[in-house]
What we know:
Blueprint: H1 21-33, H2 36-62, H3 69-73, H4 77-81, H5 83-87, H6 89-106, H7 108-115, H8 119-152, H9 167-192, H10 195-212, H11 218-224, H12 229-234, H13 250-274
Helix pairs in contact: 1-8, 2-6, 2-8, 6-9, 6-10, 8-9, 9-10, 9-13
Amino acid sequence: MTSTPATLNYEKPTPGGRYSLWDLMRSEWLKLSSVRSTFWTLGLTVIIGLGVSAIASSVTRSHWSSQSASSRASFDPTSLSLTGVFVAQLIIGVLGVMVMSGEYGTGTIRATLSAAPRRPLVLLAKVAVFGAVALVVALVTSFLAFFIGQTLLSAPAVHATLSTPGALREVVGTGLFIGLIGIFSLGLATIIRHTAGAISTFVAILLVVPNILRAFPNSVFNDAIRYFPSRIGAAFLSSNQGPPRNAFSPWIGLLVMAAYTVALLILGAMVMVRRDA
């Protein structure tokens, strides 16, 4: 009589699959920091932001004696020194698109969503990590551009300090706006998914459509332009003369921009839930 050998169970228990927002944020940071293009893009944002501001400040200083009295009276040294930061918004916007659309393009988003099925939480983690990086880089660039610009605007040119009325608001507001632009573009990419399409849409909203509006009657242009990011951002660079014509006040404009961004992210979360990866 032969005995049947006992069956041994070597199966390991299946992981419970529990994960927190912090776990997802660590994962998103690993993905963001392991891509070489992230550091190149962020570095280019800083270099362009500081370089353009330094050139603008140097040229203004060298031609200061030839400027008219009215130009000198209305001159805003803080605004001039932040010129390059607004040029850099295009670069950080492109990075925001690539952070999301890159995963869809390579197909790695499938692995991400398989490991973490709660898609809105994945998006929240991505926004938290990239948003923090974008805001820090934008604020650091804004402050450095200000200090470099004011150093180059030596006497007899007018220069400012952070204690100059309106200067700190311009510097901080510009940094916050540029960081928000990065998150805004990430929201666009979450909806569109395709890199070229998302970048084209971002550039159109930022630059193309506002210029097309100039072809319309002034009444239409003046009513519509205040709602575009370009005019919202310009309101921060206006300490001497107040906000540009037909623009929101700086902080109201920033709230409007934040509302746009939140709306895009909510819509993007709905798209992520309903569409296949």
